[in-house]
Amino acid sequence: MEQEKQFIADLCHPKTQQAAFKKLVQEYQKPLYYHIRAIVLNHDDTDDVLQNTFIKVFANIQQFKGESKLYSWMYRIATNEALSFIQQRAKKQGISNEELQSKAIQKLESDVYFEGEAIQLKLQKAIALLPEKQQLVFKMKYFQEMKYEYMSEILETSVGALKASYHHAVKKIEEYLKQD
């Protein structure tokens, strides 16, 4: 905890900010990429959202109060950026978020960065049919193996509510996968 406080101080101080931010990017770029990718699905869009996330982190680090872990705070920013991206893209195209997700799933089949088989594609389709919160919880728990306590900080909701969302998501996905 003391290390994190010093790291945050380094991020805020003009003399150490650049080096500390470079270290922050190196440490969190990959996990944040996969977190965002699970939400927006497309590689190029993920890169854009990731870049915006780090810009927001850099611009707002002075306001970080340390009430949560830096990791949780950054994941919350990444989650909000990814969801905002989807909403803006859907609005621009005049379609719902769900329709946009459905289109993204269709594009996954031709995405060179998607290394999935038919069952993985079917799983992605099932996930896309879930309500937004259940999608988030399922992806964070199933793909990123994130603990409920971390998710609780990131999504600012109770562990019990997260467990219920995950349970409902799993049931819906199982039903979808049983269909032929």
From TrEMBL:
Any signal peptide, and if so, which residues?
none
Q: Which residues form the RNA polymerase sigma factor 70 region 4 type domain?
A: 121-173
Report the superkingdom from the record. Answer: Bacteria
Matching SUPFAM superfamilies: Sigma2 domain of RNA polymerase sigma factors (SSF88946), Sigma3 and sigma4 domains of RNA polymerase sigma factors (SSF88659)
Per UniProt, which keywords does this protein have?
A: Sigma factor, Transcription, Transcription regulation
Q: Which InterPro entries match?
A: RNA_pol_sigma-70-like (IPR039425), RNA_pol_sigma-70_dom (IPR014284), RNA_pol_sigma70_r2 (IPR007627), RNA_pol_sigma70_r4_t2 (IPR013249), RNA_pol_sigma_r2 (IPR013325), RNA_pol_sigma_r3/r4-like (IPR013324), WH-like_DNA-bd_sf (IPR036388)
Q: Where is the RNA polymerase sigma-70 region domain?
A: 24-90
Q: Which family does it belong to?
A: Belongs to the sigma-70 factor family. ECF subfamily.
Name under which the protein is recorded: RNA polymerase sigma factor
